[in-house]
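Running this now, will post back.
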Amino acid sequence: MASFEKPRRVNGRPVCAYGDCARRRDGAAGLCGPHRRRQEQGLPLEKPVASRSASGVCTFNGCGRRKTARSAFCAAHTRRQNLGLPMDAPIKNRGSARCHVEECARRPLPGSQICERHQLRLDRGLPLDAPRSALFGPKVCSAGECGRWVAAKGLCAGHRRRQKQGLPMDTPFRAETPRRCERPGCDHPHKGRGLCSAHLQRQRKGLDLTAPVRESWLGREWPDTCTWRDCARPLRSAGLCSLHYGRRYNGLTMDGPPRKNPRMPGVTLRKTLQGYVHIFVPDHPNAVGQGWVVHHRYVMEQHLKRLLQPHENVHHKNGDRADNRLENLEIWITAQPAGQRVPDRIAHARWLLAQYGTEEEQLEY
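Update: finished.
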């Protein structure tokens, strides 16, 4: 077995270590594939390795295509051999034929040397370099005096459909007038089944179709304020403000006094879904949102004349979270020493007296 050098690299790529072979190294032996196989089979390494380009060519007469891995022919001649077809028939070169017009890369039509787009220009007597707009016509339908937007082949969608179905092109289209409700005396727009939206809903629910329908706002100028009597609130929907629209939607009386809205200017209290009351104090250090503070904590802070600490909770004695009277509130604390040793309990007791004791106890501790 011939000797060879250690594996080397060429341009950072590991190559075969035998002689001047520049093939890629294959495996831990430091050799390329052909030299490694020769070494394993005990063959001489000095014999030149056949080039793939020379040995991988189809052996059929005059064919220069690359042969397949399991045959001596190319893929086309191998397929013909398996199907019993004549081997000497010319092979079509797919993908190489292009339109003969300069700078056109489309495929030519069968039996022609130009593509479909340029053949259409020749059929219409247009030059080959005519723009695409001249080929397909204007953007307006070319059928008579039809001014609709073109859809295909220079025609609108209606005339194109008639052309496909072989119908006469000069028949006028149906008048494009908006369809109305078919109920007597109803002029509302059509919704479905020949009825407007109101009568269609009544038909589905089994209600009386002869009952009068309220006047529609469609096509009318919408006012800027609520139309309910003397209400001057901003308009929301159906000619009503948010207050009266909500009352009519929920079936409530329309003339009742308005409830105070916490979001309206001048309102200082609001109630949350959990039952707590918030007060509007935008300058408070613990205010959240647009300046809201929990009311029961604010009352206790005003009584103690200081801010509450994070470990201090205000408890409602009677359980009513909205009852924020001072006699109904008391402070609970959650702080506790981190152990049960006597010095810790004593230190915690001194801290409690310093925080919540009398003035003498606070000064002493």
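The mean pLDDT is 79. More later if anyone needs it.
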